[in-house]
Specification:
The protein is elongated, with a radius of gyration of 15 Å. By secondary structure, the chain is mainly alpha-helical. It starts with a helix and ends with a helix.
Amino acid sequence: GLGLGVHESVMSAAVADMIPASRRASAYGVFTGVFGIAWFAGSAIEGGLYDVSVTAMVTVAVVAQLAALVPILIAARLARR
């Protein structure tokens, strides 16, 4: 619950900073849709891996978190400009 609460407040503010006011509603919708689909896909993959190997599940989770750093760093660099 804490993670979702932080996500909702921080990411909404980040989207608001990156998108012009006239396009914010669409941006929130697209962002939330992509987030939901990605969350479902990740949960399905993790659930399937849990049945096969807990080690594989943990490995995929760690790799996914590390891979998520790439777009975060790119967005941070673009936001500074």
